[in-house]
């Protein structure tokens, strides 16, 4: 009869001084093959327990693995990120196109007293002054032209028909340009406050003295463009007057294309100057230079968004203005638009169109300025601090 200890290997006796034999090597056990995933396509025999579907286990590199065996090749799942803080009309992070377009509408709803109320009042005053000036100047010009044609055989009254209306529009156009420039600067203040959840009153907006920096910059830029375009036209006229028709045509085409590219470049690179002048407390030229540098690396994005918004605003403007012009021509039989009723109808349409276009364009420009500064300078951190300070002070 044997005991359990009898099956254990017994030590081998050796003579003193002899070599000790090495212990026997452990038996080699082949590794068990990895379990394959169950085949769910075969029918289960009657009475067999149901087979649960295999559960993939996360392996190396995010690749699912069977039975805990790591996989390779797939990227790991992205880490969770908290949502961006949004105390106002847009989230405090780099903005997409949809967020900029939607944020411009939200800016109007966030402060309608300034965005619509103040805008409508300012535009109404400007359009009224422009309409009166246009009516008065057109009457003077038409009278002078009538006297000139009566004493001359070179021109007839039909040849100069509409000339007074066209010249009066040219003379009255700077009024609308200056007013929309001032209004754009004021609206930028309201949009910047709406970004951090604050609301500015019309009185606070009207107190801003930096608006004259925006007006001065717009005047300087317009003067520079007028000088360049005037020199371009003068050279073409000079070449044509010297019977250099080929040179005039060639210069007109090449220089015209270069002038167009230059105007687009300057317009985009100076797009952020008005919000920078209104929102930063630095000197005039340093702010202009800084706004020029801010657009570096964002030229095509700014150009695309501004062109898209300008196209949308232009379509809305024509939807409002064109029916009014047609109605004025049909009802008052005044294609020139100089009768009192015609001026009233077209003036109301122009007030609505200018209010909508100026408000929305100013909101988009302000949001583009904030977006560029978030991308380049981390302005979202400062805006978040300002929002927290404003919330704590309430």
UniProtKB/TrEMBL annotation:
Ranges where the Glycerophosphoryl diester phosphodiesterase membrane domain occurs? 257-377
- Locate the region Disordered: 1-75
Please give the start and end residues of each transmembrane region. Answer: 114-137, 171-191, 211-239, 245-268, 303-331, 343-370
Q: Where is the composition biased (Pro residues)?
A: 19-37, 43-56
Protein's name according to its UniProt entry = Glycerophosphoryl diester phosphodiesterase membrane domain-containing protein
The protein's UniProt keywords, in alphabetical order, are: Membrane, Transmembrane, Transmembrane helix
> What Pfam families is this protein classified in?
GPDPase_memb
Q: Which organism is it from?
A: Cellulomonas rhizosphaerae
